[in-house]
Amino acid sequence: MRTRISLSALVAIALSAGSASAAPITWGLTSAPCSSTGGTSMGNTKTYCSAPGPSVTASAWANTGDILPLPAGANTALAVAQLEVFSGGLGVRNADWNVAVPGRDTNEGSSPEHAVDNNDRFDSVLFAFEADVELTSLTLGWVGSDSDITVLAYTGGGAPVLAGATYGALTGVGGGWALVGHYLNAGTGSEAINPLGYSSRYWLIGAYNSLVGGDKSYVGNDAVKIESLTGEERRQVPEPASLSLLGLGLAGLASRLRRARRG
User: Can you give the pTM of this predicted structure?
Assistant: First the structure.
């Protein structure tokens, strides 16, 4: 009987080893974060917890990293921005919001450009999770005159480096980022995303961004605030060597069971 119980338990472990998903988790982004850095300065971050799921750290980015001055729309390099928490969700004030220089995006300090927008600059929020997550939907708590959004997932090795990169390079050869999708007229409420089931620790979500591919005619009047994210933690699948050892254990127990029955 003991051998039979042990064998059954090991079989159950083997069958569950291939299971990589867990129950859906929602990360609310309007409540007080677990921790934050940088206060309300450029490059600040906010970390949100959703026990028992992994925590996620949010930071703001926009293509404002080139040398001043530049004509409107000419910025290409990514630089940190200021992450804001509003009642409707996360917004972004990029580095142009308080700079009175010709060609700069000086309206970032007022509505609707205090949100995640694509007027002159492309604002995005980087979500860095503690573990791999398969996002399935997001909720916008506030939108401007339009609400087209773009979602990217990092599929490269190590941690992504955004500072100094361009949006176009992110999804280019060797960039490490995959275009999960453009979602038009998302509106307030829940929006399903990621039909291909990408799983990643790093997600970049912003107003519709034609620089990563797409129709440029949708750009210019999108402004949204990100209220929450929903997805599933992707548990680590055992390494092949571990699976081999598990198989050997099963074979050994089966052999013992056969001998016990013959005896």
Answer: 0.81
